[in-house]
Amino acid sequence: MRRDWIERSRVREWPHLRRVVVAVDPPASVGASADACGIVVAGISDGGDAYVLADRSARGLTPLGWARRAAAAYEEFAADAIVAEANQGGAMVGEVIRQAAPHAAIRLVHALRDKRTRAAPAAALYERGLVHHAGHLPGIGRSALPI
Description:
With about 150 residues, this protein is α/β, with parallel strands linked by helices. Helix content is about 30%, strand content about 25%. The chain has one domain: Nucleotidyltransferase, domain 5 (2-Layer Sandwich).
């Protein structure tokens, strides 16, 4: 993702959002050398623009640790759902999230293509100016967005 797209997309406030989700890309392992768990809060406006509201990604958490972090973001932003990639861990991903957020709507998705292919539609939205970032999100832009 190009840094200039992100800089041009920054906003201080966002409009009413018709849907807000917490997107979770869990790591395949735990420990100091494990990948970070991607946790991003995003919403879509009535006009169809996307707004990235928060990056709660973290490294070194246990499965229950990242699930609790996602649950906290779900509560903080009054999200409509937690959407989690289940390629690494399958049903276990949903069960761990359910422990941390028993009342949350949880949707598991399975990635069928590589991250670069999945990122292409998001990159096209950035190019068209349809994605906005709320303030400064230090983790965004260092790697692909989850899901």
